[in-house]
Write the structure tokens for this entry.
Amino acid sequence: MLTLPVFEWVSPTSLDGVLRELAARPGECLLVAGGTDAVPNLKHRLHEPKRVVSLAGVAELRAAREDDAGLHLGARLTLTELSRLPALKRDFPAVAHAASLVASPQIRNMGTLGGNLCLDTRCTYYNQTYLWREAVGFCLKKDGTVCHVVPQGRRCVAAHSSDVAPALIAYGAEVEIAGPEGRRLVSCDQFFVGDGIHNNILKSDELVTRVLLPAAARGQHGAYRKLRPRGAIDFPMLSVAVAVRGDAKRLESARIVVSALGAKPRLLGGLDALVAGKAADETTFAAVAAAAHKQCRPLTNVPYDDDWRHAMVPVFVTRALRDVFGVSA
């Protein structure tokens, strides 16, 4: 049986209290909301904090509201709540659908928006017990100096595994970050960086408090597709989120995000030139799918064949586009 390491546990009841804890122990704290990813990582000694700071008592982080700016989602809303939120299902259905596909019902009942957004990257050589990692040789992400996926590489390529993040990026969502200097909004796309060791811009004394889906993004057609070994539990081998403006007869623009291949989700480029003024038909879908295949290259960072995952990129992009417009193959 894997046991937890020794740590102090604190449970502030306000956001200011959380920030004080982070400031008092810089770099020594681990934030926990639902704990569905944090607890296994603690047992594997992937995280070894001196203090675990629970967010369970911070009521502010559970708020959901609409205003002229858009839909505001608190970071501690559970994935189950997101999947059922009427405003989210109405205006941003790809996000609600993505939340509904995370793991299992039990995990969705505990896991949160902020936790899934900030999910630690995953790799064949990282998500293992301490004894396994010691036997094979520690990796660049934890305790070692060599990346076993790219031996000559100097940057970790562990894979991004969040389900909600690609859908949020597709809709142009913004992430609110709170820290000692106040709060700031950044685009969800810019929230992530291409380094698997720490693949977002959060500093050790900051946390995500809210996600804003902008009012301007309403009215788009959205879809989310996820490739995984089983229909539940498993992390994605590949995920695709789509947000399209226009109708089936005449498209205006498209934002497509492909994830679970590298350390951050990839927002595909050059798609508007392929779809603007075109009909939502198989010819257009094929052109977009070919562009996605060209722009994406999986690595052997998860235990599935990288060539097969690459071949599935255009397949899942096409399926997501068909979902958007209710087109059958």
